[in-house]
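cron nightly-structures :: item 1 of 1
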Amino acid sequence: MSYNSPMSTPLRVLIVEDSEDDTLLLLRELERGDFEPIYERVDTLEAIGLALDTRIWDIILCDYIIPGFDGMDVLKLMQSKKLDIPFIIVSGKIDESTAVAAIKAGAHDFVKKDNLIRMAPVIERELQEAETRRQLKQYIEKAKVLKSIVDRSPVIAFLWRIAGDWPVDFVSENVTQLGYTTDDFISGIVSWPNIIFPEDLPQLKIEVDKYLKEGALESTQNYRLYNKFGAIRWMEHHSRPIINSQGVVTHIQGLIMDITEQKRIENVWGDFVSDISQQLRDPAAKAQEEIKQLMDSLRDDSNSNRQTLLQLIGQNINHLSAFINNLPETYKIEAGKMVAHKEWPKSEAKNT
């Protein structure tokens, strides 16, 4: 059943009340508060349970004393169904201590029947708070899903504060792949700069300072660090700044992935290419010299076709020799190594 009023807000309200006259008083007060009540009146626990199971309610208005049960029984019934509906006790026979006990048990507020002018503002407030709880619940569920995805992925999420030794405000639980725990970093027991390979730390600090000064939206660095067991691991680090309302960078959020195996493969292939290049270099140089000697010995040969063929062979051997000599550097460029090639660390453990 509904009561219609122009420009009013629809309100699905379950009224737990044994008095029809009191129900009409509640409905009139809701209309005065610019609500359009779509309601059902119930006065037995069976009817209440059925109404909760079969319909969606915005709010519950419940008398405290009803023949056969009371407001606490209704509250427990709603809670047993895992429902989050604003629950307001409306009674003329409830004392303050009973009302406080009901609120501690989970009721959201109480209104005395001789002061129904409070009811509309209370309902409006509770509807807003219920919406806030609903949005927060959705956010928490999404955060749980995201956390689950991150924790199962090889990518470690970090949040560093711009201060001192880059204190960590957040790190995903999958940091355990490096042997550490989240508490190691959050508590400050482990400092991020202290686990970075010493030769890589100065350049990393320069890049971070440059990145902050230039206001870049993102940055990528590759560097080595020590895991908790002292082994050296290569990491690829993608970072973005968090800027406050004053335009100041307060934090850096980072996604870090272990690329040790990728680096190992790159170095294996680099060594292989270098070996192949070295093995081909001497035969190519020898072929160049032999063609040159052959061309010198046939300098006075009148057969122009033979001279042209020898020149063409010589040019091709020169091109092949240049390719062989440049092969290692070409591989580095193709592998994304635009900087000077670093030797793979001889030691796989941190000196203590």
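cron nightly-structures :: done
The chain is about 50% helix and 20% strand.
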